[in-house]
């Protein structure tokens, strides 16, 4: 039987919570302060801790240090809620943050999720093993270092209830990352709804989000459930959050803090147990400065930010993704088409301003136009880096510049574009990794390395095999 430790200086609150957790199949112990809580933890390590934020001898958050190494989940409760305390609690690893008087339905939902933690951890371990073998993680694909870092973040935040802010260019897979977070969570058997905030009319977005009552406005001939009600017990993904009207951002903040909202046309509060994930293709801090995103909402959403890398810095992931997409088309149509080696090389060289979405369109177009099983560049030409994408470096070579100087500038710009990953830069430049290292050693000896590259070399003492 799973065991929960209840920490609250109010004896009546402890008794009521103990009764609720017993109904959900937990055994429990109670403590009135931090000292008693630590003693209880010493006697028996709980599966979860339900602790008041304010205790006579300190803060409930101090218990993180006692149980975090054992993977124990911590739910904090408080009668003095604020955005700052909620964000801090979730940043430190709280599973949830409940405002007093505690909503029993929401607490029961949290307890049900905790009861499935063992099964969830086994699934995560299986997913990570699959990643190591095949370069896959949930709905995402790729083996590059940049994506490995993303997978690590997703695996850590997925099982929690933390709000996640996904940041990345259009087409980098933010919705797939959100779906992966959902599938890693205990909500995975509940609804996952994705909403593009920029695709809904500003006059209808409040009704779409929170629903409306019959007769609340012209044309409202029936009651309508909004996204929050339809996603109850599941996950709601708000894409392009900076496109949401500011007046609605205030109401969204209230839902995130209290779990309650009102349909258009009524003053009756509704409750929804929803985990919110958000995404933007803009720099969120710039969006705040420009008045597109409320600062308080940004801080509430930015509990666990994850940046999705653009395709141009993901090295051989381009080839892996393209081949996987082509295999899917082959499976659907019963064909055996494949890319010629020169096409795969062109895919590596392309800047992909549209990221994975652009690559998907290319693969579909190549498949349709192919007249034979081997797809060649003659059949489907791909202009390499024809249009620089935002953030892509452009090297200007004035007439009269020496080839050596032009060569040096191109190498530096390519390395910067590849975030210093020398193997990827060498592939794009069409030279061996050893040749690239030799060039960099020569530039270093002449004092020609830019400052950012000198700093990166200080932590990179590796060299290619001779």
Automatic annotation (TrEMBL):
List of residues that carry 4-aspartylphosphate: 52
Transmembrane segments: none
Xref: CDD domains: AAA
Domain of life, per lineage: Bacteria
Keyword set, alphabetical order: ATP-binding, DNA-binding, Nucleotide-binding, Phosphoprotein, Transcription, Transcription regulation
SMART domains listed in its UniProt record: AAA, REC
Coiled-coil ranges (or none): none
Pfam families given in the database record: AAA_lid_14, HTH_8, Response_reg, Sigma54_activat
SUPFAM superfamilies attached to this UniProt entry: CheY-like, Homeodomain-like, P-loop containing nucleoside triphosphate hydrolases
All copies of domain Response regulatory, residue ranges: 3-115
Domain Sigma-54 factor interaction: 140-368
UniProt-listed InterPro entries: AAA+_ATPase, AAA_lid_NorR, CheY-like_superfamily, Homeodomain-like_sf, HTH_Fis, P-loop_NTPase, Sig_transdc_resp-reg_receiver, Sigma_54_int
PANTHER family (UniProt xref): PTS-DEPENDENT DIHYDROXYACETONE KINASE OPERON REGULATORY PROTEIN-RELATED, TRANSCRIPTIONAL REGULATORY PROTEIN
Protein name, as recorded: Regulatory protein AtoC
Organism: Cupriavidus pampae
Lineage, broadest ranks: Bacteria, Pseudomonadati, Pseudomonadota, Betaproteobacteria, Burkholderiales
């Amino acid at each position: 039987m799973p065991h929960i430790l209840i920490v609250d200086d109010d004896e009546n609150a402890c008794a009521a919570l103990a009764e609720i957790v017993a109904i959900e199949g937990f055994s429990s112990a109670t403590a009135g302060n931090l000292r008693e809580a630590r003693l209880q933890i010493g006697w028996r390590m709980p599966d979860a801790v339900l602790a008041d934020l304010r205790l006579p001898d300190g803060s409930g958050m101090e218990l993180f240090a006692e149980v975090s190494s054992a993977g124990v989940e911590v739910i904090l409760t408080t009668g003095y809620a604020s955005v700052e305390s909620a964000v801090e609690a979730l940043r430190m690893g709280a599973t949830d943050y409940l405002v007093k008087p505690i909503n029993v339905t929401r607490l029961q939902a949290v307890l049900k999720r905790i009861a499935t933690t063992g099964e969830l951890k086994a699934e995560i371990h299986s997913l990570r093993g699959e990643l190591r073998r095949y370069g896959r993680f949930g709905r995402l694909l790729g083996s590059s270092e940049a994506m490995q870092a993303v997978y690590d973040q997703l695996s850590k935040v997925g099982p929690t209830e933390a709000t996640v802010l996904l940041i990345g260019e259009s087409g980098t897979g933010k919705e797939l990352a959100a779906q992966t977070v959902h599938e890693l969570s205990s909500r995975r058997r509940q609804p996952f709804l994705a909403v593009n905030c920029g695709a809904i009319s500003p006059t209808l977005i409040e009704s779409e989000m929170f629903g409306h009552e019959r007769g609340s406005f012209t044309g409202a001939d029936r009651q309508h459930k909004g996204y929050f009600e339809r996603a109850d017990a599941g996950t709601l993904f708000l894409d392009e959050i900076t496109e949401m009207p500011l007046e609605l951002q205030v109401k969204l903040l209230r839902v995130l803090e209290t779990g309650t909202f009102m349909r258009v046309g009524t003053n009756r509060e509704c409750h929804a147990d929803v985990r919110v994930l958000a995404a933007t293709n803009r720099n969120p801090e710039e969006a705040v400065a420009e008045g597109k995103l409320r600062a308080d909402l940004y801080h509430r959403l930015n509990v666990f930010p994850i940046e999705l890398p653009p395709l141009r810095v993901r090295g051989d992931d381009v080839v892996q993704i393209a081949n996987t997409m082509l295999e899917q088309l082959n499976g659907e149509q019963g064909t055996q088409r494949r890319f010629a080696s020169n096409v795969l090389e062109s895919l590596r060289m392309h800047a992909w301003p549209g990221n994975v979405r652009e690559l998907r369109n290319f693969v579909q177009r190549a498949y349709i136009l192919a007249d034979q099983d081997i797809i060649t560049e003659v059949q489907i030409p791909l202009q390499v880096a024809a249009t620089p994408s935002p953030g892509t470096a452009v090297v200007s070579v004035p007439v009269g510049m020496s080839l050596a100087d032009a060569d040096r500038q191109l190498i530096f710009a390519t390395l910067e574009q590849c975030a210093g990953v020398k193997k990827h830069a060498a592939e794009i430049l069409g030279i061996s990794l050893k040749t690239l290292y030799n060039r960099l050693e020569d530039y270093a000896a002449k004092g020609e390395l830019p400052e950012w590259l000198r700093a990166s070399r200080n932590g990179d003492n590796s060299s290619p095999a001779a």
